[in-house]
Design goal:
Layout (H helix, E strand, L loop, with lengths): L2 E5 L2 E4 L4 E8 L7 E7 L5 E8 L5 E3 L7 E6 L4 E6 L8 E9 L2 E4 L3 E6 L1
Parallel strand pairs: 2-11
Antiparallel strand pairs: 1-3, 3-8, 4-5, 4-9, 5-6, 7-8, 9-10, 9-11
Length: 116
């Protein structure tokens, strides 16, 4: 079983920065891909960024490329999402996910609100 706990959400002004954290409870995530998704009100949950646990290979949605950075700390079993140059359209609940093949594990989500 995998438990994921997000933190770091809150209210931020447009143009500002925020770092989200996802603490994962498992001895090793070798073979897993860790990701961040977001869901705005009335919209579907969308992919934001991902990172492979072992190699650290990253992938980003076009809407956040150049502004967001995903990283992981293997020793702390934690994944981060550094968000810079935030825009009002980045407002959403941000979810951390751990995937292994077809299995998905989700955190409870953390709200990020960007004011204009």
């Amino acid at each position: 079983q995998v438990q994921l706990v997000e933190s770091g959400g809150g209210l931020v002004q447009a143009g500002g920065s925020r770092r989200l954290s996802c603490a994962a409870s498992r001895r090793t995530f070798s073979g897993y891909t860790m990701g961040w998704f977001r869901q705005a009100p009335g919209k579907e949950r969308d992919f934001v960024a991902s990172i492979t646990w072992s190699a650290g290979t990253t992938s980003y949605a076009d809407s956040v490329k150049g502004r967001f950075t995903i990283s992981r700390d293997n020793a702390k079993n934690t994944v981060y999402l550094q968000m810079n140059s935030l825009k009002p359209e980045d407002t959403a609940i941000y979810y951390c996910a751990a995937t292994l093949g077809s299995q998905y594990y989700w955190g409870q989500g953390t709200q990020v609100t960007v004011s204009s």
